[in-house]
């Protein structure tokens, strides 16, 4: 499966400008590289303008769902749609949507772990869905959102449901970029999954975002990485036979003793 990751400089507080950027980027990538799947960063509609979301958040995905669905269908690509600030009945969530090549919405997830360092708990509601998985082209996959990366339980739950690829959509600051990188290696190695991340570049409210989006294989080897702090495209192909290979050679899932973990 061939990926294109948009390491995007999100325009703060301007959903229309960001939709235009994404449309132009997808159409350019499809013309040039013909990816099977594209990945967008976190909160791409408004950026971290959390104190101004009342006029900026989407409303139950009413703009985002048709926008990304049309792009997926017209360009014959799967879209891991990053995430958006999304107004629902009882508050604003950080919501990720996933679409297949037919433009069908196959998954949505509300970020569970709200990041205090960026004031998310002050403005957003946390999601409550368990770490569900979805299928694209017969492959079981998962998606988590940025700060979720710090909670190994969530990715382990996704891996135990059979996921072979974990996507991380993010706006991760430069100040903690080593955690961003090392945690991704850890998640790939301990779960023997591909880890594919889309981080933003640019800045908001004095916070610079690290870029350095990554593709890491199930053995913990770096396949591709984005430039630090610069808007760029990361292209990579993944070989899913590597998942079965490492799980045969180092059968950690067979070695687990959950009855002794106090689960
Ligand atoms: N957008 C985020 O969730 C940022 C996470 C972060 O800054 C951290 O975990 O450190």
Automatic annotation (TrEMBL):
Hydrolase in keyword set: yes
Gene Ontology MF term list: hydrolase activity
InterPro entries, sorted: C-N_Hydrolase (IPR003010), C-N_Hydrolase_sf (IPR036526), UPF0012_CS (IPR001110)
Record carries keyword Metal-binding: no
SUPFAM superfamilies membership: Carbon-nitrogen hydrolase (SSF56317)
Residue span, CN hydrolase domain: 1-240
Keywords: Hydrolase
PROSITE patterns from the UniProt entry: CN_HYDROLASE, UPF0012
Entry similarity comment: Belongs to the carbon-nitrogen hydrolase superfamily. NIT1/NIT2 family.
Name of protein: Carbon-nitrogen family hydrolase
